[in-house]
Amino acid sequence: MSMKTGSSGVNSDINVTPFVDICLVLLIIFMVVTPLLSRTLDVSVPPKSDAAPVEAAAADQMILTIKGPAEAPKILLNREEIVGGIEGLGERMTELMKNRRVDQKVVFFQADNDISYDFVVKAIDAMRGGGVEKIGLVTDDTLDATGAPPV
Predict the structure, then answer these.
(1) Whose CA is closest to 100, among 73, 131, 127?
(2) Hey, where are the domains in the chain?
(3) CA-CA distance, 101 to 113, in Å (whole number)?
(4) Which residue among 26, 29, 31, 44 is least enclosed by CB atoms within 10 Å?
(5) How many helices (DSSP H) and strands (DSSP E) are in the chain?
């Protein structure tokens, strides 16, 4: 550090040495404490089962798909076209749901993006009117119920 002669002004130089000392001490503290903070949790995983996975009965499963242009959409139930539009859908659902238990009144529903929201709501209302208790919405395009390749 140099001394100034002849002037009694204030020295405005920053003394960095205490700041560096504090930073080094904090670095050493964090380096020592960090390994002590890592904790592990013992998890017991169940053994692998040799039993075959249970698959849902595809014969009971119903998938309703609305395909086609927005002007003339087709309503398909398990790849079979329902004639009569929305009214035909309500009648077909009533026919299929009358002999089912409450927990089996499930229909999976899928519609193209270009189908109008109004038509989709009317189709869901027709299913509800036909006795469907639960409606599952299929949103994955790769799970196409009609067998057509995904776009």
Answers:
(1) 131
(2) 71-137
(3) 32
(4) 44
(5) 3, 5
CATH topology of domain 71-137: Nucleotidyltransferase; domain 5 (3.30.420)
One-character DSSP codes across 84-147: THHHHHHHHHHHHHTTS-GGG-EEEEEE-TTS-HHHHHHHHHHHHHTT--EEEEP--TT--TT-
pTM of the model: 0.55
**pLDDT, tens only, 26-50:** 999 999 998 888 777 777 777 887 8
With the CA atoms of 20, 26, 28 and 34 taken in that order, what torsion angle do they form, in degrees rounded to the nearest 10? -150
- Spatial separation of the C-alpha atoms in residues 139 and 151, rounded to whole Å: 14
Backbone angles phi, psi at 72, to 5 degrees: -135, 70
Angle between helices 85-97 and 117-129 (to 10 degrees): 30
Given a cut of 80, whether residue 134 has pLDDT beyond it is yes
Q: In DSSP terms, which residues pair with 110 in a beta bridge?
A: 65
- State whether the Cα torsion 55-127-81-68 is positive or negative: negative
Alpha carbon 2 to its chain centroid, in Å, reads 68
Q: Starting from the edge strand earliest in sequence, which strands make up the sheet with 74-77, in order?
A: 80-81, 74-77, 62-67, 106-111, 134-137
